[in-house]
From TrEMBL, chain A:
Family: Belongs to the bacterial solute-binding protein 1 family.
Function: Part of the ABC transporter complex UgpBAEC involved in sn-glycerol-3-phosphate (G3P) import. Binds G3P.
Entry's localization field: Periplasm
Main subcellular location of this protein, as a coarse class: periplasm
Endpoints of the signal sequence: 1-21
Gene3D superfamilies linked: Periplasmic binding protein-like II (3.40.190.10)
A Pfam family annotated for this UniProt entry: SBP_bac_8
Keyword Signal: yes
Family matches, as InterPro entries: Bact_solute-bd_prot1, SBP
Protein name: sn-glycerol-3-phosphate-binding periplasmic protein UgpB
Origin superkingdom: Bacteria
TrEMBL record, chain B:
PROSITE patterns: ABC_TM1
Job of this protein: Part of the ABC transporter complex UgpBAEC involved in sn-glycerol-3-phosphate (G3P) import. Probably responsible for the translocation of the substrate across the membrane.
Quaternary assembly: The complex is composed of two ATP-binding proteins (UgpC), two transmembrane proteins (UgpA and UgpE) and a solute-binding protein (UgpB).
Keyword Transport found: yes
Keyword Transport belongs to the record: yes
Origin species: Jannaschia pagri
Xref: Pfam families: BPD_transp_1 (PF00528)
Family affiliation: Belongs to the binding-protein-dependent transport system permease family.
Subcellular location: Cell inner membrane; Cell membrane
Membrane association type: Multi-pass membrane protein
Top-level division of the source organism's lineage: Bacteria
Protein name: sn-glycerol-3-phosphate transport system permease protein UgpA
From TrEMBL, chain C:
Assembly, per entry: The complex is composed of two ATP-binding proteins (UgpC), two transmembrane proteins (UgpA and UgpE) and a solute-binding protein (UgpB).
Pfam families in the record: BPD_transp_1
Role noted for this protein: Part of the ABC transporter complex UgpBAEC involved in sn-glycerol-3-phosphate (G3P) import. Probably responsible for the translocation of the substrate across the membrane.
Compartments in which it is found: Cell inner membrane; Cell membrane
Alphabetical list of Gene3D superfamilies matching this protein: MetI-like
Name of protein: sn-glycerol-3-phosphate transport system permease protein UgpE
Membrane topology: Multi-pass membrane protein
Membrane spanning stretches: 27-48, 95-118, 125-143, 163-184, 205-228, 272-293
Organism: Jannaschia pagri
All residue ranges annotated as the ABC transmembrane type-1 domain in the record: 95-288
CDD domains: TM_PBP2
Main location: membrane
Keyword terms of this UniProt record: Cell inner membrane, Cell membrane, Membrane, Transmembrane, Transmembrane helix, Transport
Domain of life assignment: Bacteria
């Protein structure tokens, strides 16, 4: 592959502009299984759509493995043209200016009229810099939403809760009465921390959630979230809420088995739920909010991963990368991706196209994520940018686990998270020096 | 030491050179790199870095979480090493003893040997699955509400069980070959000298197994410390949370997964020093008591 | 653990052993072995059962006693269906790669380790102990924790995406040297004396006497090293990007990986591939086991 790429670059320069040679580019990703097949399908469609460029996607293991492989390769000058980086790794790759070419610059340099407003509101800024310039192209994007067992809620005679107050006083007791555990969720840091702050428009970190500088301090030790976790422990004691560990599937399975009535998962999960032929009807709606904290709940932001154009490549290859990004952002590709994987489309145009095709009539749950991402934005809703965030999430997961197994108190846990996260942030700031 | 050796000067050097070159290039150079980066905080892509002296080390020793992981690693290593060695020795002794079906047992017991660590971990996930795992159901029958991934102790138990399960066959093969290589004449002599069966085992058989056992001890300790990585990673599903983890997994979590090069390098250096000390100690304590030939 | 091997000899040879006692101990022996075998094998049986039923069912109900009809289908998918873009990483091609990695690694390591151990044990070498410790230290830091610098070395030697690049860095560890040192030191000293009296030089002694004598140990080492190479995951993931270089464990991970519950992974296919991945090493073990056990017993005259 390396030899081929070098050969094609040489060939391209020989023919001055590469009019006859195809430019080959590589794309490292972390999408295994059926998702990987969707990636391969998109790549094939791209290769068939034109004659100038050939894209080769390569599966590089988990998100973390793909990122580290990309880093190792970059240090040795063997980087791929495109690297998929997940949300928590964004600060690492964006912090290393010079490692990537901002996607907005790349597209504009190659003659695309780029407008960030074309992208769905909750999608736009997560991988952007403090000035709102898009650095990474959102790829597999999802947001946490609330799934519920329609049959269970009917049996209990309740509606899906809009607020946590409603959940605690009406929904959960009724569901318990009807023989269900009311609530489970699959990712505490993502759903009950990051997007909790966005939904309630609370600042998550100083420096505008970390976008404006490296000397950031986390603001997670606040009353709103502590009250939320205190409520969780109370619900756990009352039999309204159950936690099944950090494994995503362990928390989803009880919902699928009909033991848990409401499950907070990803907007992308509906595809898997639909394929499992559940013994009940399910539907989805927005994440609840605390009325005591806000009466104007805001949008959530995206999780998942984005594609970054690695620096240090020839202009021909960068042109190929830009062409692929344009292809990827086109409404047709986005709709294909959206339907095939369950991830949200990233542009308004793609959303409209899917709606036109009547997709949301056959799969209403697929629309919830997009709608929630399109709710009103606030000052604190575009995302977060914190270094060593993978470790910060580890600390959160650890302390939350201890809260829910009774090993520590909410108060102590958040003090520990704040302390360790700030230590990690200050260490990260010095890696950039 | 007591070996009557050859005296040719150039040959041993020639023999050692390939090994030394390979480890110099692929071990010492990268390891030196790791030691160097343990004194820095570095941007993984290689753009920024700050010299921080011993801070990466002091940071670790003041971190109660790191000490907790170290404690778990010690207990885990002891349990896995001794359980897998003990179980394998028991099975090897029995397989050496039975006449009928000896061959079938031998073949059956070896199957798991080739299971890759991540696959072993995956099998562990199946056996201990929260909703339908056969071993979870078994534990519940005994009144133990086993929840992998929720309770620290339960996850630790699963890690030990899977690691032992995977390691028994290697030890079994070696112990069995060791036992079968004990000369018949020795066994017969022992039979006359010593009447009690366990006496015979500990006085005669076990000392003859000692070189094998010492080799296995070291191999098992390095296995428990390093090669259980795939098992741990799979059992915690890549998200350690409040689950136990080993020191090597911690190096992976911070370095490979979290891209903290300085911090994880310091951890590798600490680990290396600890294991080196442990091995020197073993060599001094144990090897003195083993009779080669 | 208490009644040990000599009992069987007793039953064979003495004409009238006290019958009840011996029967009991045999029963105990067999029970221990049966329980042990079950402990080792049941999980594999569960895995096979699970790959015979549809994936949806497995996810819902887990293992059961029922044997489904998906084995064929999953076998075909596991062996012949590519899981990548180029269509080159089928089960068969991954098997071949794992084979090359396993055998290359085992052979390389044994040759290099034996040579080094011979130098350390059989020569009056001033720095023999030092050399041993230099080599031994490599046991102390696994490849996983020095991946970034190792990657750079491999890249600068132009070995990315090659079998050498996969194999050679893994050889940089002391297991084989340590193992052969242990063994050489237990070889009777009189052999060297005798060889010297016969006028055999160090090379002749090594090739004509020591290597044949080590046959069994070579076999044992081969098994360990083969399996180690066979099961590599992280290192191949780092340094190979061509899909025709994928190894088995990597393939298995690729099939089972899923994000945020968006799909139902093909567990049946992955489980079956995992079972298939166990078979070749087991054959290697069985093949060499009879060899080295025979060797061991023959050396006892």
């Amino acid at each position: 592959m390396t030899r081929l790429t070098i050969a094609s670059v040489a060939a391209a320069s020989l023919f001055a502009g590469g009019a006859y040679a195809q430019t080959e580019i590589t794309f490292w990703h972390a999408m295994g299984g059926a998702l990987g097949e969707s990636v391969n399908a998109v790549a094939t469609q791209f290769n068939e759509s034109q004659d100038d460029y050939v894209l080769t996607p390569v599966f590089k293991g988990t998100y973390e493995e793909a990122l580290t492989a990309g880093i190792a390769a970059f240090r040795a000058g063997e980087q791929p043209n495109i690297l998929q980086v997940f949300d928590a790794g964004a600060a690492t790759v964006i912090g290393a200016q010079g490692a990537t070419i901002p996607v907005q610059d790349l597209l504009e340099a190659n003659g695309t009229d780029f407008d960030i407003e074309d992208y769905i509101s909750g999608v736009r800024y997560f991988y952007a810099d403090s000035d709102g310039k898009m650095i990474g192209m959102p790829f597999n994007s999802s947001s946490p939403i609330m799934y519920y067992n329609v049959d269970a809620l009917e049996a209990a005679g309740v509606e899906p809760p809009k607020t946590w107050e409603e959940f605690a006083s009406v929904t959960a007791p009724a569901l318990k009465e009807a023989g269900y555990t009311a609530l489970a969720q699959s990712h505490l840091p993502w759903i009950f921390t990051e997007n909790f702050h966005s939904r309630h428009n609370l600042p998550f970190a100083t420096n505008d959630n970390g976008y404006d500088g490296n000397d950031t301090q986390i603001l997670v030790n606040n009353d709103a979230i502590k009250a939320h976790f205190t409520a969780l422990t109370e619900w756990q004691d009352a039999g309204y809420f159950e936690w099944f560990g950090t494994g995503w599937g362990d928390n989803q399975t009880p919902f699928e088995n009909g033991e848990v009535a409401i499950w907070l998962g990803s907007s992308g999960s509906f595809g898997g739920l639909a394929k499992k032929d559940l013994g009940f009807e399910f539907s989805a709606t927005y994440l609840p909010y605390w009325e005591a904290v806000t009466t104007e709940p805001k949008q959530t932001f995206i999780g998942g991963a984005a594609l970054f154009a690695m620096a240090g490549k020839s202009d021909e290859e960068n042109a190929a990368t830009a062409a692929f990004f344009n292809f990827l952002a086109s409404p047709e590709t986005q709709v294909f991706w959206h339907k095939d994987t369950g991830y949200v489309p990233i542009t308004e145009a793609a959303y409209e196209l899917a709606a036109e095709q009547g997709y949301y009539e056959e799969a209403p749950a697929a629309e919830i994520g997009i709608q929630q991402l399109s709710l009103p934005a606030g000052d604190n809703t575009r995302g977060y940018r914190m270094g060593f965030y993978v470790q910060i999430r580890d600390v959160m997961n650890r302390e939350y686990g201890r809260i829910l197994t009774g090993e520590t108190s909410v108060e102590d846990a958040f003090a520990t998270i704040e302390e360790e996260a700030n230590a990690l942030l200050s260490r990260f700031a010095r890696t950039q020096g | 030491m007591k070996r009557a050796g050859f005296t040719t000067a150039w040959l041993p050097i020639l023999l050692l050179v390939p090994q030394l070159i390979i480890i110099a290039v692929f071990f010492y150079w990268p390891a030196a790199h790791a030691i160097q980066s343990s004194f820095y905080l570095q941007d993984p892509f290689g753009f920024g870095s700050t010299f921080v002296g011993w801070e990466n080390y002091t940071h670790l020793f003041s971190n109660s979480e790191y000490l907790r992981i170290a404690g778990f690693t010690v207990i885990f290593t002891i349990l896995v090493t001794f359980l897998s060695l003990g179980l394998a020795l028991l099975l090897a002794v029995k397989a050496d003893k039975v006449i009928r079906g000896a061959h079938s047992y031998r073949t059956l017991l070896m199957w798991v040997y080739a299971v890759a660590p991540p696959v072993a971990g995956f099998i562990g996930l199946i056996m201990f699955d929260q909703s339908w795992g056969p071993l979870t159901e078994f534990a519940q029958m005994l009144g133990w509400d086993f929840t992998l991934g929720v309770t620290y102790f339960d996850t630790a138990t699963a890690m030990v069980v899977v690691s032992v399960w995977k390691q028994v066959p290697v030890n079994f093969i070696f112990f069995l070959s060791g036992l079968q290589s004990i000369p018949k004449s020795v066994r017969e002599a022992a039979l006359i000298d010593n009447r009690s069966a366990s006496g015979r085992f500990w006085d005669v058989t076990f000392p003859l197994l000692a070189p094998t056992a010492f080799f296995l001890l070291i191999i098992n300790i390095t296995y428990s410390l390093f090669d259980t990585f795939g098992v741990v990673d799979t059992l915690v599903k890549g998200e350690p949370g409040n689950n136990p983890m080993t020191l090597v997994y911690k190096v992976y979590v911070d370095g490979f997964r979290g891209n903290d090069l300085g911090g994880s390098s310091a951890q590798s250096v600490i680990l290396m020093v600890l294991v080196l000390a442990l091995t020197v100690f073993q060599f001094r304590m144990v090897e003195r008591r083993i009779h080669y030939t | 653990m208490s009644d040990i091997s000599a009992d069987t000899l007793a039953t064979d040879r003495s004409s009238a052993p006290p019958k009840r006692r011996i029967k009991w101990s045999t029963v105990v022996d067999h029970s221990v072995l049966i329980v042990g075998s079950l402990f080792m094998l049941l999980p594999l049986v569960v895995l096979i059962q699970m790959s015979s039923v549809p994936d949806v069912e497995v996810i819902k109900t887990g293992p059961s006693l029922q044997i489904g009809d998906q084995l064929d289908d999953n076998f075909n998918k596991a062996m012949f269906q590519a899981s990548g873009f180029s269509g080159e990483n089928t089960g068969t091609s991954m098997l071949i790669n794992s084979f090359i990695l396993g055998i290359g690694f085992a052979v390389g390591k044994i040759i290099i380790g034996m040579m080094a151990a011979y130098a350390i044990v059989y020569f009056r070498l001033r720095f023999a102990t030092l050399a041993f410790w230099i080599i031994f230290t490599t046991l102390l830091l696994p490849l996983e924790v020095r991946i970034l610098p190792s990657y750079e070395v491999v890249q600068s030697l132009g070995m990315l995406n090659t079998y050498q690049g996969l194999i050679v860095p893994l050889i940089a560890s002391a297991t084989a040297t340590f193992f052969f040192r242990q063994f050489f030191r237990s070889v009777p000293e009189e052999l060297v004396e005798a060889a010297r009296i016969d006028g055999a030089g160090p090379v002749k002694f090594f090739i004509d006497i020591l290597v044949p004598l080590s046959q069994t140990m070579i076999a044992a080492m081969f098994i360990i090293m083969f399996v180690f190479g066979w099961n590599q995951y992280l290192w191949p993931t780092m340094i190979t990007t061509d899909e025709d270089m994928f190894t088995l464990v990597r393939g298995i991970k690729q099939i089972t990986q899923d994000l945020e519950g968006t799909n139902i992974p093909e567990y049946g296919r992955a489980n079956l591939l995992a079972i298939i991945a166990i078979i070749p090493p087991v054959f290697v073990v069985i093949f060499f086991q009879s060899w080295f056990v025979k060797g061991l017993t023959e050396s006892d005259k």
